[in-house]
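Re: [help] complex structure
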Amino acid sequence: MARGTTVKMWRKTIGLLLVLVVGCFGAIAVNLFRLQILEGEELETRAVNQQTQDTSLSAKRGTIYDCNMKVLATSADVWQVVLDPNFIRKELVPDDASIQDTIAQRLAQILGEDSAEIRQLMEKQTYYAKVADEVETDKKDEILDLKEELGLGNAIQLQPDYKRYYPYGAFASSVLGFTNSEDQGVTGVEASYNEYLSGVPGKLVTAKNARGVDMPFQYEQRVEAQDGYSLVLTIDEVVQHFLEKSVEEAAESCGVRNRACGIVMDVDTGAILAMTVKGDYDPNDPYTITDEADLETINAIPDDEEHAEERAQALRTAQEKQWRNKCISDTYNPGSVFKMLTASMGIEEGIVNENTTFSCGGSYRVADRNIGCWKLAGHGTETFAQGLSNSCNPVFMQLGEQIGATTFFRYFEAFGLTRKTGIDLIGESNSIYYDAEGLGPTELATSSFGQSFRVTPIQMITAAAAVANGGYLVQPHVVSQILDSEGNIVETIETEVKRQVISEDTSARVSAMLQETATTGTAKNGYVAGYRIAGKTGTSEKIDEWNAAGREGEKKYIASYCGYAPADDPQVIMLVFFDEPVPQNGEVFGSAIAGPPFAETMAEILPYLGVEPKYTEEELAKLDISTPGVVGLGVEEAQTKVSNAGLTYKTYGSGSTVVSQIPEQGKSIPKGGTVVLYLDEASTSETVTVPSLTGLSLSQVNARVAQAGLNLSITGAAASGSSAVSDTQDLAEGTEVPPGTVITVNFVELEAVH
Amino acid sequence: MAANISAGAAGENAAPAQDRGQKRRKGSVLRRVRKRFRLFSIRAGMDLPFFFLLLVLLTIGLVMLFSASYPYAYYNMDGDSYHFIRNQAMYAVLGVVIMIAVSYFDYHHFHKLAIPLLLVTYLLLIAMLVLRGSNFVPNLNGAYRWFYIGPINFQPSEVAKFTLILVFSHLISLNYEKMQTFRYGVVPYAIILGSIAGLVILEKHISATVILVFLGVLMMFIGGTRLRWILLPAIIVGVVAFYLLFFTDVFSYAMTRIYGWLFPFDPPEGVDTWQTRQSLMTIGSGGLLGLGLGQSRQKYLYLPEPQNDFIFAVICEELGFIGALIILLLFAMLIWRGVAVSLKAKDKFGMLLGVGIMFQVGLQVVLNLMVVTNMLPNTGISLPFFSYGGTSLIMLLAEMGIVLSISRNSSIEKL
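Output below.
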């Protein structure tokens, strides 16, 4: 036997060696190949995710401009104040806590916060503790000074951020919407165009070790934020301003209970020039409740723990209500405004013409019941044009019957009333309606004068625009252009015509009838001299609610006015709508409530939009005259000049030259008005007393004003019909004013109109 | 020179003295002549391929230890990034000196040391039980593996491994002829292995127990114990373990650990797989070519104690798949060469001792790498020549000295 290794031992050893070196090492090598080559990337991603710390770099949100590039919403630089408690403890003051107190106190002083809270943040085991958000530049500078003074290094960091500002406050808030604390749009274009506006946040990636401290080597990767795109709206700040002013005043004076809204649209392009909801909010502070009734409801709930949930719920409900854009989210019965569509169907189908005669006996029998006209006495025999002007329900019930359910519904659909308009705002609702099968005789009859179905205001105005513009149903929109952060145009929103619903001829004929309606008919409260308004009022009963309440209690109404101008070449269309008005004098008719704000707005925006006035003889006669300047002239010369201007004069005092005049040069007064000429200084102190001028006819007002030695300027419905009644005066009764002062009196048509 | 010592030692040695003494006397004239040449002859020198492979691995080990440990040292040793490398380099130099010294020491002297060392080992392991929980044997993560005496700390289980190899080599080389029998081929080894492994398992040191059992069985197998005596208990243990694991809840805790091992990124509740997850992420980050020496990112406190058991993960991250393969290859070459040298030893004692030591290294490397790459559940086991630890490095290098000593007497062709 050998002393050394035997063959057996040698074989066994080599066998085991092969198992160990080839088998085990081989398996390990294969596994390493799997881990490093096959699954390497996945594992590395996991590793990198834990090793790096991402800091988001905010992207600047795009600006929102009106059509004239006025800034309606913008993002301003603000700063986040962040503490690095780890750094403060370990690097800055390992043993001395007093500097931490100092930092806390000084920071609290600058930011107006509690120093104890800041001091507590410094105890956290972290490198990131946010102290304050949205810190403005002046405070940021103070903090920078503090850092320098105390030599704080990275202990306090200022990270750039942005805050959303709406320079005009509540202005156009229903269109603009607002952003939440994460800078994301919640409603309005802020929400519907959020992805364009918000941009792409950048990223700062820094390496961190497992304790969250920066690694001793440099590793930093910066991906710059990409600023958001800007929007150019179709909204015109001037038009918006006049619409808001008129709607707000009217809403206040009629005590509307369920908010009011108004839309102004370009009839040809569908561009929304103005859109407002009254009972809206300030997007700078969207969570504060503006509606007083809602505030009272909330405050009536005790502010204790037991009612906390109820209170929070009430607050949420009120917030959601004020954020809701009534123009696109709420449906209503359009009432008589809808008659312009029924009329268009009748003319287009050749069932009626302007002179087709109808008779109205105060009601019309449909199936098993009589459905009344607003005028219980009836309108007697009338032409179709008169029927529209009178807003006579039996005329339209008969027309509806002749059109038939199938054709009626085909038009109803073609006018876009069965689909959302697709306006570029979020929260649009769809209409509720009977389809062709559902339109029985009663439903068809009531539908033909705008009851028994519900549409949104935006659907109604879009359909009405088709009546005005030659029959084309256009796509309403509020954004005209999208710009990149350098101001280059990224996208232009073009006019989109969906279809032609009625012929241009029908459109023109209906427009002519509607102009008559707005001049002498039931819609004359919307009349504006010289601008050929075509319009229709609507007073719809909330029948469905009343039925739901068991046909008992108070009936609620919606007053609306929809019209456009000029009738011979329509350019702008406007719809105002007051939900549940409670007027003092008990009148809830559309013409009385919705007509004046319509006329007021149109009178302001049509000249602004460059629509040329064309006056009739009658209108010219009533046209105001600009007072000539005669101060410094001789008495006779002055008198001649005033007379030549078509005005009368009255002199006060004694002297040979005019020392002052009332009204002053350039002020408009009606033809035949009086210019008071003062010939000495002493007489300028003379005054007259303003008489009461409300509730009177035009001639009565004229007489009283003349008697008092004042000049009259009239607004509202007085220009045409004789039934208009004075409603308000701009100078209060009993005020002492110089003679010749111009007093403005507004007239409304109070004749009961449905 | 080695032969000189060997000759002297053999004379004093009790058991094999007669056998070798006779041979020596037979060729004593010749040997004297040779002796002059032997001092300078190739046969008297140590195996240089083994020696240099060793130095290369040790050097790479030190470089990687420095790279892996400096962030950990920076954050845990008051900013002293050099804490670990300073100590380890010191021990490495000391270890190499000891290794060379041992290589000149005739390994036959270890015949005499076998039984005394076995007694010392028992003493140590029993002391571990007695002193458990005291300052000498503190509870570290629920286990009692380390023995602290003054400035020195070591794991008696490391001593036990060498003891086992030495005692088995000693006994097998004496009783080689009777290894086929149950009495001489099984009983003594089963008693020694069972008692040592039993004591080590009481320290809750699973990995050391596994290595001890593998080493013991492996040496018995090479030594000539009949395969049936090895397979039978292995099958019984396997069946019992299988039954307990899957049909009782005795090892329910082990089951959840196993799930944690199989799904480290989605572990069952209560199982902490942080270390395994970090190790896998570290290895994966390296890719084919690695992030470059010193560029590991995972060593920044993500990978727990990167200077210890998981140093290979950092190697994978910094040197990539290629670098890791080279390290694997170097280990394989070292083990191969060590075994080859031992197989050519001039006697069975040297052969068994050398093979045992090399397989110990090999097992340790394989277990460590399998744990680091999650082929085995996580258990504390260090990587020879790489992991931080002064006493264990010195012990390891001393054992390498024994292999070198064997190589001086080996008939392998010296390169």
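Chain B has one domain: 45-408.
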